[in-house]
Design brief:
Cupin_8, three-stranded antiparallel sheet, globular, JmjC_dom, nine-stranded mixed sheet, JMJD8 protein, Jelly Rolls
């Protein structure tokens, strides 16, 4: 379902295509800056399994763990996947705090979701000394995770559009940890001078964003979105 959140046509994150080699990825991006990768994988088979009907048929009665959409304190709530899709998967309320916003992303039971992930084709690049772990999510338009940081990883949009905002480790963004990304976009973002704006871009299905270690990032789903991240730990 398309949302009412505007898409920013400007993209300030560098893009690369399937011609990007592993050595160039390591040299230019792996430890220094984000990049959007296009055409590096074909996940059409995985996408076909991620429709509303297919996911409800496969996982409807199973519990999923939801997290609150704030930066430092994550309250967890377990609900059946079907209840989440039919009752909680809705557009973000602009005035709702992050501590009151439930978000399905990352707490996947691999016993139940593992067979789905076997069909996912991850990006072909790795960081030496790390191993990949998947985090799968579905969220409504206007939802997202406010600014936070962790280790490096990739994130791919399967359905919908997802807007990203990124700052390097030495530039801490100005944000309230219990303010949703939508509220930050409406209230704080317009006040930022050009030099203080984040790197940003909107990802579409099939595009993959790589973010380096300790980069601040916030996300905003412009539509009801399905997405998967590959964290390198």
């Amino acid at each position: 379902l398309a949302g009412t959140v505007p898409e920013e046509p400007r993209c300030t994150v560098e893009r690369a295509d399937a011609s990007l080699t592993y050595s160039v990825f390591l040299q230019r991006f792996a430890f220094s800056r984000p990049v959007i990768l296009g055409g590096v994988t074909d996940n059409s088979a995985f996408r076909a399994l991620c429709t509303r009907e297919k996911l409800l048929a496969a996982f409807g009665p199973f519990p999923v763990r939801l997290s609150t959409a704030n930066t430092y304190s994550y309250r967890k709530v377990d609900v059946p996947f079907q209840e989440y899709v039919e009752h909680l998967l809705r557009p973000q309320d602009p005035v709702r705090l992050g501590s009151d916003t439930l978000y399905f992303f990352g707490d996947n039971n691999f016993t139940e979701w593992g067979p789905l992930f076997q069909h996912y084709v991850p990006p072909p690049f790795r960081i030496p000394g790390t191993s990949p772990a998947y985090s799968f999510g579905i969220a409504g338009s206007g939802s997202g995770v406010p600014f936070h940081w962790h280790g490096p990883g990739f994130s791919e949009v399967i359905f919908g559009r997802k807007r990203w905002f990124l700052y390097p480790p030495d530039k801490t963004p100005h944000f309230h940890p219990n303010e949703t990304t939508l509220a930050w976009l409406q209230h704080t973002y317009p006040t930022l001078p050009p030099a203080q704006r984040p790197l940003e871009c909107t990802l579409r299905p099939g595009e993959v964003l790589y973010f380096p270690d300790r980069w601040w990032h916030a996300t905003l789903n412009l539509d009801t979105s399905v997405f998967i991240s590959t964290f390198l730990g």
